[in-house]
Write a structure and sequence with these properties.
The protein has helices at residues 4-12, 41-50, 79-95, 106-114, 135-138, 156-166, 171-177, and strands at 54-55, 61-63, 66-67, 69-75, 98-104, 121-122. The chain is of the alpha/beta class. The strands form 2 sheets. The protein has a 3-stranded antiparallel sheet with strand order 1-2-3, with no helix packed on it. It has a 3-stranded parallel sheet with strand order 5-4-6. Helix 1 runs antiparallel to helix 3 (79-95) and helix 6 runs antiparallel to helix 7 (171-177). The chain is globular.
C-alpha cells in the first residue's frame, strides 16, 4: 500500500533509490535476488478483505465494529520523517486505514516511547556502516529497554545467523547470513 517512489520524489527530491531490507543497493551485502512488493492497492486490500475487514460508507475499514487505525510516531523537528509519515498516511487512507501522526521531541521520543516500546509504528532511520553487522538493531540481546532493537524483534534463527556472520571475516559467509 506504500509507494516508495512517492517518498523518494516527495521527500528526497529524486535523490534516492528504493531498497528491500536494511542494506543499500550496490553494496556487497545487498541481496538483489529479493523481489520487492509492488505498489498495488488491490493486492494490499486482498488479505484485509480475506480477514473479514470491510469498508463502511466513508471508505474506512472495520471489523467487529472496530476500525483499522494506529499512530505513526516521529521525531519532532525532523521534517523528512514528518513528510514520510504524511505520505504513508495518505496511501493508507486510500486503503481505508486511519493512520494518525504524532511527533515528539527527541528525548521524549527515545525515553518515553522507543525505550518502553510504547508505539504502534514509527519513522526512524538507521545508518549502515561499512561493516553491515545487524546485531545492535535486530538481535534478541538488544530487545530490551534501552537497546536498539526498539521493535523487540526476537527470532532464534536470525540470532544464529547474525552470530555466525559476526564470527568470520569471510564475506561470502557474511553475505549468506545477512
Amino acid at each position: 500500500a506504500i509507494n516508495k517512489q512517492d517518498i523518494i520524489s516527495g521527500v528526497l527530491f529524486e535523490q534516492g533509490i528504493p531498497t528491500v531490507g536494511p542494506y543499500i543497493p550496490g553494496t556487497w551485502v545487498y541481496n538483489d535476488r529479493i523481489k520487492p512488493y509492488s505498489y498495488d492497492m488491490d493486492e494490499a486490500a486482498r488479505p484485509l478483505a480475506e480477514a473479514g475487514w470491510t469498508k463502511d460508507t466513508n471508505g474506512l475499514l472495520f471489523k467487529d465494529g472496530r476500525p483499522v487505525e494506529f499512530t505513526i510516531l516521529g521525531n519532532q523537528g525532523k521534517e523528512q520523517s514528518t513528510k514520510i509519515a504524511e505520505i504513508i498516511q495518505s496511501h493508507l487512507k486510500k486503503l481505508g486505514i486511519t493512520a494518525k501522526i504524532r511527533t515528539v521531541e527527541w528525548a521524549a521520543f527515545v525515553n518515553d516511547f522507543l525505550n518502553k516500546g510504547f508505539f504502534d509504528a514509527l519513522i526512524l532511520g538507521w545508518r549502515t556502516t561499512l561493516d553491515p553487522d545487524l546485531h545492535n538493531v535486530w538481535h534478541s540481546d538488544n530487545a530490551f529497554d534501552g537497546g536498539l532493537n526498539f521493535v523487540r524483534y526476537k527470532n532464534d534463527e536470525v540470532d544464529a545467523l547474525i552470530e555466525e556472520a559476526r564470527s568470520t571475516f569471510d564475506q561470502d559467509v557474511q553475505k549468506r547470513c545477512y
